[in-house]
Design brief:
about 140 residues, alpha+beta, Alpha-Beta Plaits, six-stranded mixed sheet, 6 strands, about 45% helix
Amino acid sequence: MKRRLATILVGDVVGYSSMMERDEEGTARRIANLTAMVRDKVKVRDGRVFKTMGDAILADFASPLNALRCAVEIRNGLAEAAGESLQMRFGLHLADVIESGDDLMGDGVNLAARIQSSADPGAIELKRRAFRAGAAELPLQF
């Protein structure tokens, strides 16, 4: 098994299940538009989307700073990509991961998902290790 250090970004749409209950086809279109926008922004920041699951998107980056910049750009582009107000929550974690084909796995990926699930709507949560590794360079308030 090949291991490597990666910054994992997990993004999830807030209220996805209730949106699907109200308007399944419209929500599916909005999520498709959102996913296309996210893939573009991840690529521009030298990242790679390695998994999508409905409303969740997982990407990896060599640079924590690029991962955080990407999350900010995604958050700022939500209204344009998906129409009416749409919120996401993000988790970002720098960790050793296991490569399995095009997929990544391991405790670091799981922890990034847990960090994301504890974030407030619209928030980008990250652990101190990722902050120290470069996120402190951004002119953002934490």
